[in-house]
Design a protein that fits this description.
Distance between the termini: 55 Å
Protein name: DNA-binding MarR family transcriptional regulator
Helix content: 55-70%
Number of helices: 6
GO molecular function: DNA binding
Number of domains: 1
Order of helices and strands: HHEHHEEHH
Largest sheet: 3 strands, antiparallel
Pfam families: MarR_2 (PF12802)
Number of strands: 3
Keywords: DNA-binding
CATH architecture: Orthogonal Bundle
CATH topology: Arc Repressor Mutant, subunit A
Organism: Streptosporangium brasiliense
């Protein structure tokens, strides 16, 4: 075995190839609905969060964006009427991004095709046992490399 035959390199390569391939498949349905990949990620995270809102800092932590990057995405989605900002009543420094009815409608329009794509190109290729193991494995890795990925997912005492 040479240095280049290391199974760790194979694991990273396969993960990168799978991600790239899945992203390409999903991109088609997103763009047909007038959304970029990050628009979809932002809207789905808001829709699946308590109260359908997240603090801007938590939204940045959950996505692959910096704070300024998430601000630009939310600004654009706000101009399109898909997201609104809400000020925090108890802390003027904090603001929330919340999905609007138009955002929910847009997301609802793309979700049937997105779920079909997921079934065709991802989950449908695995047995229920394989999927369960895979999800548990991904959570272990995600929690190690992105500990803030679920920031704001639970309701806090203040809101």
């Amino acid at each position: 075995m040479t240095l280049f035959d290391d199974s760790r390199l194979t694991a990273m390569g396969l993960l990168a190839e799978a991600h790239t391939g899945l992203s390409a498949k999903m991109h088609l349905s997103f763009s047909a609905a007038g959304l970029s990949d990050i628009d979809f990620e932002t809207l789905i995270r808001l829709a699946r969060s308590p109260g359908q809102r997240l603090r801007m800092s938590d939204l940045a932590a959950q996505t692959s964006l910096s704070t300024s990057g998430v601000t630009r995405v939310v600004d654009r989605l706000e101009r399109e009427g898909l997201v609104a900002r809400q000020a925090c009543a108890s802390d003027r420094r904090t603001s929330y991004a919340t999905i609007t009815e138009a955002g929910t409608d847009r997301l609802g329009a793309v979700l049937p095709q997105h779920l079909a794509d997921i079934e065709t190109w991802f989950t449908g290729l695995l047995t229920p046992e394989q999927l369960s193991t895979f999800l548990a494995t991904l959570r272990i890795i995600r929690d190690a490399v992105r500990p803030c990925a679920t920031a704001g997912a639970e309701l806090t005492a203040s809101g």
